[in-house]
Design a protein that fits this description.
The chain is α/β, with parallel strands linked by helices and 207 residues long. Helices cover 30% and strands 24% of the residues. The chain is built from six helices and eight strands. The strands form two sheets. Strands 4-1-5-7-6-8 form a six-stranded mixed beta sheet, sandwiched between helices. A two-stranded antiparallel ribbon has the order 2-3. The longest helix has 15 residues. The C terminus is likely disordered.
Length: 207
């Protein structure tokens, strides 16, 4: 049976530290578009869904040919709303209206430099063992360095069953995929983070 994975991009309108951060551009593309591009044409990913409460982001998603069937409900659009709650809403909608899936792949717009190569690696590992979530980790995050690998937010991959059970993308016993490239370990949440991201050469970012 062919693996069926839903790539999910969560993109809320408001952000305190960097207003409208998901619409910021690196080169000629917004963070939303870069995340969409990273998930396209990867074996196993059957759909890309953008969950947002922003009409502009919704239009960008539709223009790029991916699912964005609704504006996210208001109760899932506040600062205190967790990614897990928003992801569960999207997952339930997709499995009720489109199809059951084997895996849920979360891609945060704020980590736009993830490579297709790493996503393909994660999916290949997941195909052999769907009971273990896969999470990207690194010893560097923006300008911070750590002695031990930390979750860096580039991607999370888990089964719908595990996600519904634990309501967490990075449960303790996940399988870590280590990222070494500084560019792929950038998480944009402030003006300084954006400045760092823009300092990298964005040519062939998602190869």
């Amino acid at each position: 049976m062919k693996l069926k994975i839903l790539a999910l991009i969560l993109a809320r309108k408001h952000s305190k530290r960097l207003p409208k951060k998901n619409l910021k551009k690196i080169g000629k593309k917004t963070l939303i578009e870069l995340s969409i591009d990273s998930a396209k044409n990867i074996k196993g990913i059957v759909d890309i869904l953008v969950s947002t409460d922003d009409k502009k982001i919704l239009r960008i998603a539709k223009k790029n040919g991916v699912l964005s069937p609704w504006l996210r409900p208001r109760h899932l659009s506040y600062d205190h709303t967790s990614s897990e709650d928003s992801a569960l809403h999207a997952l339930n909608w997709y499995e009720k209206n489109i199809s059951k899936i084997d895996g849920l792949l979360l891609l945060q717009p704020t980590t736009p430099f993830r490579s297709k190569k790493l996503l393909k690696k994660a999916i290949k590992i997941f195909e052999k063992n769907k009971n273990k979530p896969i999470v990207s980790v690194s010893k560097i995050l923006n300008k911070q360095k750590f002695k031990k690998p930390v979750v860096n937010g580039a991607f999370y991959l888990t089964s719908p069953e595990k996600f519904r059970k634990y309501k967490n993308f990075s449960k303790k016993n996940f399988y870590p995929i280590f990222i070494k490239k500084k560019k792929e370990c950038i998480d944009i949440n402030t003006k300084e983070d954006l400045k760092i991201a823009r300092s990298f050469n964005t040519f062939n970012v998602i190869r």
